[in-house]
Amino acid sequence: MHWASVFGAIWLFHLSGARASPARTKMYGKVPLVLTDACMGVFGDVTWEYTSDALYASPVCTYEPALQSMLYCIFESVKEKGYSNKTFEKTFAAIKEDCSYYTDALQNMTNTDFYSALHNGTKHMMQYVEGNANLTYPIEMDAQTRENYYYSYHGFYANYDIGHTYGGVICAYFVGVMILAGIFHYMNYTPFKTALFKQRLVRYARGYLTLPTIWGKHASHFSSLKVLTGYLPTRFEGIIILGYLVLHTVFLAYGYQYDPYNLIFSSRREQVARYVADRSGVLAFAHFPLIALFAGRNNFLEFISGVKYTSFIMFHKWLGRMMFLDATIHGAAYTSYAVFYRDWQASKEETYWQFGVAALCLVGVMVFFL
Ligand SMILES: *[C@@H]1O[C@H](CO)[C@@H](O)[C@H](O)[C@H]1NC(C)=O
Ligand SMILES: *[C@@H]1O[C@H](CO)[C@@H](O)[C@H](O)[C@H]1NC(C)=O
Ligand SMILES: *[C@@H]1O[C@H](CO)[C@@H](O)[C@H](O)[C@H]1NC(C)=O
Ligand SMILES: *[C@@H]1O[C@H](CO)[C@@H](O)[C@H](O)[C@H]1NC(C)=O
């Protein structure tokens, strides 16, 4: 029953994440991708003579002057930032991938084709002036505008990446705890034991850390509060969990880079809603490996680390609670994003939305009742 719910929730989350936010674990903040999307953003906001019926189709994918303008924008930015032509060429693949959602027109272009589009475009290029519309020729955008868009996309993508990094740190934290516990455990079985560590230090540490619970009585049942099922943490568990909670809070709250010009999103509040939704969603995902690892009776981990089964269950429960919190924040922030700034009616019909709600309910049931 328990395992079935764990895997059920994982499965539902994957389905929901597949569309809600890009769930690929690749890094988004890589220079070629940010450059491409920033320049695509610049020329998506310019009024061309050409218009497309497709809702989100970018003119750079289907209108040659727009494509040439974008290539020049990327090329200039690459030079300014001191990157090589190799970085420039990597953006060709990113352009093809971005455009593949709207059209196949660019899919057969070679590097040479991209370079000749750039060179031809440069010949016909004009400086963009604020208010220009119905453009039929490639345009050159000033450096400050390009930089503003770059900053905006960088902040948006880096938020995903930093979420993955922070998730990795949480995993590394518990791995580190296991390794340290394992070292102490191992020393207990070696001649060191008699030499140094059997002395007061170990006795003190064990007496102080592993035996007493936080509130004194060992393993007293806390039956009145159903939320805190199981046993109270021992001091060892309490310290580990406290460290984890501090890390988790910092990771949820720290390192957001907002765009002062609101180039991607229409307001600061919309940015906050979306960024917090993304961060908490990525962090929620990052808990799965640990939750699964600590869920069952894991003889091997117990054997090498010397950490007791009951401690693993305690970690499992706290990780589950925080994952539920993350998922709830994710849902709330994304709902506010959709309700206030996007199409709420359409969003809640989407599969990812419905699976997300289902997963959240299932995780909630597990956290509060299992
Ligand atoms: C060169 O670019 C101009 C301006 O976008 C375009 O009208 C023309 O067709 C292009 N020429 C070639 C050979 O691609
Ligand atoms: C990079 O590409 C541009 C445009 O084709 C060319 O003018 C320049 O010489 C190249 N730079 C290097 C170092 O190859
Ligand atoms: C791209 O190349 C493939 C294989 O050569 C061909 O089948 C396809 O029609 C081409 N697509 C375009 C848009 O030219
Ligand atoms: C762009 O074209 C539209 C429709 O033809 C016209 O109403 C508008 O005045 C044009 N704008 C500029 C700045 O030329």
Features:
370 residues; mainly alpha; 2 domains; two-stranded parallel ribbon; 16 helices; 1% strand; elongated; binds 2-acetamido-2-deoxy-beta-D-glucopyranose
What would your notes on this structure say?
The protein is mainly alpha-helical and 370 residues long. The protein has two domains: 31-141, no CATH class; 157-369, no CATH class. It has 16 helices and two strands. The protein has a two-stranded parallel sheet with strand order 1-2. Helix 2 (31-44) packs antiparallel against helix 7, helix 11 (268-286) runs antiparallel to helix 14 (309-341) and helix 14 (309-341) runs antiparallel to helix 16. It is elongated, with a radius of gyration of 26 Å. It binds 2-acetamido-2-deoxy-beta-D-glucopyranose (NAG) (4 copies). One 2-acetamido-2-deoxy-beta-D-glucopyranose (NAG) binds next to loops. One 2-acetamido-2-deoxy-beta-D-glucopyranose (NAG) is lined by residues 104-105, 107-108.
